[in-house]
Amino acid sequence: MPGCRAMAPPLGCAPMAAPAWVADRRADRRTAGDPWTARPRGRSGIDAVGGGNMRTRSLALALMAGLAIVVSACSSPASPGAGGGKTLKIGMVTDVGTLDDKSFNEASWKGTQDGASQTGSPAPQNIVTKTPADYGPNIQSFVDQKYDVIVTVGFALGDATLKAATANPTVKFIGVDQFICVPKDANDKTCAGAPPANYQGIIFKEQQAGYLVGIVAGTLTKSKVIGAVGGINTVPPVVAYIKGYENGAHSVDPNIKVLEQYVSTDITKAFNDPTTGKAIAQQ
Hints:
Helix content is 38%, strand content 14%. The chain is of the alpha/beta class. The protein folds into 2 domains: 32-205, Rossmann fold, CATH 3.40.50; 207-281, Rossmann fold.
């Protein structure tokens, strides 16, 4: 593609061979002796450290950087934006919940807005997902409106985003908390296939922030019993954070008991039911 520069990652400019650390992560195993959590493997993308408020800032900055890369890597003399690059129509599809959730969706939206502003692109638009059945249609809505960049928020949107990116190679996709797994063939379980060049995942070291919180909890507890409430245990980042929390507490005192409970097995309720979360925490 004309105008593409050797930036990392050159989203949509040229396919990239997976580096060694990505291949290692695809082994889908835990690393023995990892002091943070023995983090579950099997995700690849831009890594951003953080959890809680730290993760919120990290997420916003990672999205802003990703959008800046999209603009600058494939510059065009037409429709000049910041730095003389092309301005982009940018849309964001949330996970199930609300846009002002004081957490994941809101942080992603803030990053998307900042990214658009910093690159001189028009204000982005968003679609708030009401049910998982709407993931695909919501993404397609932006495709049909000729959007240049579509940000999708959350692990659960990974399959729908991969499908859309494969079907629309001229549209750039940024997936938050999304490992891009493309099997090489029907028997491949290690994600050895090449991901679409127009699709970039952003992932985080959730276990590190969880570990630090675990140290605080382990230091403050007098009963030697602490708790963790997660949304759902089928989303790897949630499990990674809680395992980091557990290991952080045990680094203070191996005898501390960590009670873990998840809000729901239904993804439509797991991150959208503060009443149940509060009830669990108050047990």
